[in-house]
Design a protein that fits this description.
Porin; six-stranded antiparallel barrel; disordered N terminus
Amino acid sequence: MGLTSKLDRLKLKSDRGQSSSGNSGTTTPVGETATEEGVPEGSKHSSNDTDDIDEIDNEGQSILMGIISQLRPGCDLSKITLPTFILEKKSMLERITNFFEIPDLLLEADATDDALMRFVLMVKWYLASWHIAPKAVKKPLNPILGELFACYWDNLPGDSTAYYISEQTSHHPPKSSYFYLIPERKIRVDGVVIPQSKFLGNSSAALMNGWGHVQLGNRGGETYIMNQPNVYCRGILFGKLRYELGDQMVIKCPKTGFEANIDFKTKGFISGTYDAIEGTIKNTNTGESLYSITGKWNEVMDIKNLATGKKEVLFDTSTTRIFEPKTRPIEEQLEYESRRLWAPTINALGKRDHELATNEKAKVEGDQRIKAKKRLEDGVEFHPKLFRPVTDKDKGAQDLEYVIYKRFDLESDPETLRQTIFDTMPILPGQIDNASLQIPAFKKNTTETPEQEHFVDAPAAPADAPPV
């Protein structure tokens, strides 16, 4: 029996009264954006949102078993086409914006004068973001090479605005590069997400390689460097299907010497609990441990001052205030922008029409393979449009692998910073497409200017640049 015919016969848990939420609501259409200043965490996903429904029962798992029977422990899952009912209705490029949906915590950290307290608040901001995810076991769509996603926030506290640009800069292995900016506060984030999928038997793992750099321009360019915990999907062959975050996450600030090491604990086969974290904040200059952090990353996290013994709540996820990103209308977006590119697939997923979703997804991936073959035949290389590879001259940025090609000087006034990002890519409704985004990408020049720290502009495309 074929995959799609099996999917037609799936009985969804929600139809049997076994959904994870008993609330009612409606699904937000693709392209619709929130306009509220901040929405409660519970309202981001409704019970009718397919991202919150585990569309897998015994027969659903037999489909996964049919796929997994071809695999061996430790093999790479990136080349395996998984059933669409476990797909989230967004690309990985958009999924990354979860980190920026609690901006009030980031702004609070930036406004704090005490360096240690500022570091604690940066740790709080980063830990708070991990619970923003579908309630069901879902994975984002894998971006195709050259895929773009841009969005903005025009309703942040203190009349601040924020802008986000991302691009899939590599396909094998997958690398998602991103850039985020709050012009009024001189806050800049550069990062790359490099997921590596592995099959482990009854589990699959997404080993989340890559780093993020957060620069606070008003704090003398103070930079916070952080990685991510790994993601595990349990119960593929037997038991309940669920995901866990696991392994160690590091947050460090080289300028101040403060560093946080957070251990995301996975549940043992017999003992232990789900979703627990345990970690410390220390001063690497003195070796002194300053705080301990415990709790659950998706419930309540506590922090204890090791000098005084005082313990208090670091963050309670039930109080989360979400600021959802906004985008240009679908009809204004570029062909390779995520929401336009995947719109037919996402709409089919929203209707739970998995046969149609499978077909639409295959069209996008098939077109990608044709373009890759054409590049191979023509002997040309792919070059990202918005990001360039880092070089030895990019001080402290080697772990990012790619950085945005435009130069953003955080000492510039907010309007100059804002205009520079608009010159990079259209983000707001009604903005005219940058002509350079309509032509093949070219290799970016990495020649530095004397005043550059580690990001530069790219010149116009050279006349002999190869087509891609």
